[in-house]
Every structure is written in C-alpha cells, then in structure tokens.
Amino acid sequence: MNEDETKSIAEILNELGTTSRIQVRSSPGLASEVDKAAADEDKKREEDGRGPLRRRTDYRDVRNAPRSLPLTPWQVLHAIGLGAAAARQGAGRGLAEHWGSLRYSQALEANRGQFLQLSSEGRDLLRFYKATQSGEIGTGFASLLAEHIVRSRYPDHSVSVIPADIALKAGWTLRSSGTGPRPEPLTRRPHFFVEAWRPGQPSKIFLTSSKGTHSSVHQVYKQLSTASAHVESVHIGPYATVPYFLIGTEIPAKESLALHVLEAPGTTLLRPSGEEPGADLDLALRQEEFIPDVVLPTEGDRATVPGFQVLPGSFDWFSIVLARTEAAALTAFTGGGKPTAQYLTREQGRRHFHQGTGTGAKTDTDTSTSTSTSTARMWDAEHRIHDIDFVGTDHIYRLNRTRVEAFSGLKRSLFTHLYRGHVNEYRREVHSLRGQWPQRSTAEGWNTVSIRADGTVLAIRLRDE
C-alpha cells in the first residue's frame, strides 16, 4: 500500500461527510404528468384484460416543498442501513442488509455546483446492479425527504420512519399461501409509515411509497403512477383518508440527482376511542390475523375490497406495532439479536433474531456477547463520539484494498432502555434530546460521522494495517 493509495481512500471517506444538495421538484405539472402516465398504463391494462389499477388519485404538489435538501452521502447510507436492519430478505437478511449499504460508499459525490450525482464508481455499478442500486438509493433519499417534510410541519414532534412490510406482518400474512395469485392490492404496498409523535399523545401517520430510476424523467412519471397504487392498498381509519407521499428519485448517469414528490395532504391521528388512555408501548406486541379487506364508504350493504385497513378499534394496537417495530430496527442496527427479538412477532421474524444474543459483523476478531441480564456485554463495540457514549457493532472490510472500519450504534442510555424493553422510556428520553444532537460530520478519530435524531450513529475511519 503506497502513500497515494492511502490518501485517495482518506479523501473518499472524508467526501462521504461533505454536505451537498439534492434537488426537490414538486408542482401541479408533475401531478398532471403522473395523471397522464396512470391513464396510459390503465389503457394498456384494459387492452390485455387486466383492468385498471386501484389508485389514490387525490395527490397534488407538496405545499411549501423545499427546493433542495442538504445531505451528505453518509447520511443517505445511514438511512439505507437503518431501514434494512430489521429486514427479512432470504438467507442474507437482517444485519447483512444493513451492512449492504456500504456497497455505495463510493457511489455518490458532489458536482461543481455542489449538487449530488453518481460518481464514476456509481456509474460503473450500473452494468450489474442498476435496478438494485436505484431502488436502494431511492429508498434512502425518500425516507430522508419524507422525514424532513413531516418534521418541518411538526417541529414539536419526533418523527420515525418505519418499514411498512415489517409493521404489516404483525397483523396480516403478506406471503402467498400457494393457492393461486393474490389480488394485486395485496402485493403492492407502501414502503414506509412516517410517524410524528409526542410521548403520551396520539401519533400522526403518513404513508410513503418510494421509487428510483436511472432512466429519464418520463420513467419517474410512470413510477409515481404505480406508487399511487401502492399507497392505495393501506388505509388507516376510513377508506382513502390517510395522507401520503409519492417520492421518485431520478438518478441520471451524468447529471445531478433529483427527488420528485407529490402528496395527499391531511391528518390521521391514532387516537384511541372513548376515554381510553394511550397505548402502553412496553406491552409485548400481539400477533393478529386480520382479514385483508378494506371497507368501502358505501350506503346499504357492507362492501369490501382487498387491502389492509386499521380501524379505530385497533389504533392502540397499531401504535404499539409502530413503536416496537422501530425499536427492533434500532436494536438490530446495533447488532443485537435477543434485544431485537423481544420487539417482533413470529411473522415479523422474531425467531431469526432469537437465534443469538448478538450478530457482531466483524470480519477480523469478533467479541462474544454475554447472556446475562446485564447490558454490559450486549454489544461488541463501543465508542465515544462527540462526547456521547455509543454502543453497537462494527464491520472491518477493505475499500480499494485498504482496511476501513465502520461502526453502527445507539446512544448507550437509549440502548439500555430498549434492551430492558422500556420503549416508553426510550421515547421520552429521545424526544427530550430533540434538536440537541451534534450536526458535525467529522469527529476525533473518525473520518465521517452521521448521528440521527433517533440516537443512532454511523461512523467510518481508516484502520492501520
């Protein structure tokens, strides 16, 4: 390894923490183009006998949408990894998906105008991973944009982004039973629930459907028209009343990236019926077996269509679903096995995480974890970053033949709450810390750092050979 090689890797790691901007586009013209794309798709479906898609058509441009979003590439990787941490995707699931975000360590860079675009490394990936890259990078950007919009509207709330499939598995069977094809609305689902919450108060809920493409803006219009069918499959409260975002990430090969966003405005509160107190988030999550039907607002006989609906009588249950699914993602991000399992139902993948107390991702020497009730050894790495103690797991790998170390963790006191099953305490503390987290993208001993409002950290640095 020569000096030039070391310098080039150091520059790559430092650039991961460089703030750039990504364009945000939302207008009545965008909504009109999506309408046209939906009409064209439904015409083709009619011609081949499938019939039109069920869609939400009440979307419009986003009020007070930001013109651009300031981000570092490392923040995008942080969002991708956190969203994938509790995933179940075949044999390489869970923490493997989280660390899979590191494949994009060299994929994004700032252009001369300080807008994000694909790097030469990112363009090279197109030959093999085009669809995967656009989907995963698009998901990261979409979650950050949806979180930013909701947080700007409710500055006195905390905001959580929760993978929709994992949450829905607590109440419905998402996989096919082998008795034939499932109705389309059951196979098309939004990607996230965005929850704006305050301790002891009913949460505000939004759906988000995310798409990404390396093609032209016309493909974005088509993707957003399909996304309108994804959000139509899930209803919180009465039919077609829950607000949502449709977000498409345009990833050109040589120009800067752009986010295209539409919304259906409104407010859906998970308010319990009558004078009942709010949900106790420390209660173990109960697996339900709901029929995948949605009640239509019709007069006379009750009419339903296939889909997923949370009625007011289940709002308390769904509040617990969202909070504990988020808790599972946070503990999975730290590498915790059993701490994660306690928050999931059987269908959500509890057994997978229960197989071990930890899932340390080290590729060099690994640290075993203890099965005692103390939290003292329930992680395999701990670091003090910006004078905050974080615990979690690390991953040592080679980037262009140079050893680097990435660390993912959670503030120690917040992890302690979640390890003990105290979701209420976690939410009280993390809400009280709102607005106090360091924003600097570098720290002593680390090339690049990202700290999120949920208390998680993702950091990376060079390792000595």
From TrEMBL:
Name under which the protein is recorded: Uncharacterized protein
Ranges of compositional bias, category Basic and acidic residues: 33-61
Amino acid composition bias (Low complexity), ranges on this chain: 360-372
Disordered: annotated segments: 23-61, 352-372
Natural source organism: Streptomyces catenulae
